[in-house]
Write a structure and sequence with these properties.
single chain; Urease, subunit C, domain 1; eight-stranded mixed β-sheet; 18 strands; 30% helix; binds zinc ion
Amino acid sequence: MKIVINNATVVTSSGVFRKNILIKDCVISKISDSPISERGASFVINDKDLLVFPGFLDMHTHLREPGFEYKEDIETGLRSAHYGGFIGVAVMANTNPVNDCSTVTHFMICRAKETGIPVDLYPIGAITKGLNGETLVEMGELRSAGVVAFSDDGKSVTNSEILRRAFEYAETFNMPVICHSEESYLSKDGQINEGEISLLLGLKGIPREAEILGIYRDLTIAKLTGGAIHIAHVSTKEGVELIRKFKKEGLSVTCETCPQYFTLTEKEVLGYNTFAKINPPLRTEEDRLAVIEGLRDGTIDVIASDHAPHHLDEKNCEFQNASFGMIGLETMVPLCLELVRMGILDFKDLAEKLSRRPHRILNLNSPKIKEGEPANLTIIDPHFEWEVNEKTIHSKSINTPFLNKKLQGKAKYVIKGGEAFELF
Ligand SMILES: [Zn+2]
């Protein structure tokens, strides 16, 4: 199969260039300055407005299967990822049953293959059995089954001794531990960020100190063991500062934030908007700006979605009873492009944070736009305006504070496994 991309802006690790690309039999066979003959091609892309990126990977997704298929299943979740422009997703273990043994891991991988959707599913194994925080999983067994990291995401591992052992064992397999960093006694029963707005709404707050203490403890234990730590969904100014400090000291730490934390603030929950109820909660403007600075100076390595689908019944209820989380796979690209439009990141930074870094953290081969490399590409129309609604979203759920809002930019094509897919 011959695929030709002419006149595109290509984002490579060495810069951004106007180039023409020939793909033959799944491989990038030629990158040239002059247009490539379109004769005999089975698929041609020729649009000077498009941006060609190495394929995107979302390293923090909840696909809900097994156990919560009424919110999302592997097929609808992968479809949502595909239309969001991703070639791969790493999926969290808080399913039912929890992904704490090889049977569940095998099931997820097989189910993903059966769907035929061109998105690779990389399971993340639990740290503790049933996410109980007490009994470590058989890391070797899970690793052989195909997990790429370990995390009890959704919960922190409150027992510091268990967390220490987790770092030590994961280190022997050269695998990262992904920490949901939260001092859970402090955040217990909290609904939104603690502050003026929680007071105003009469809702129990989640103090920022819950995240700050969580991050500090997790970094300190990682330092004790020398293990690789990745901090999930950083949302506070002090959290960013702590990670910056430990990085400077040489700790092997990486971290991620999500578009909601650099786009929205706690004001989004005014009017008891349950779609904006997430954990960690949306924070203050000062935090939002600190997260942006962390992205800009490289303290924050990755942008991940924390895609957390919920049924409408779990959101159309009293605020206290509503579930935490929002979907995010399909709004990722436009919200990240906003950082480029604001001059905070450039296209190369986006390629780092959405492709190269997440692949490297999970020890996966990162796609390269280079002759002789496999063709795994995300191709974006940065100008396309669209509205987030039930018709445009492919996830089974629509719980997002961006519902009915207009966004700019969308993945238009994905190239994977030698095939080109047109997304709109
Ligand atoms: Zn999560």
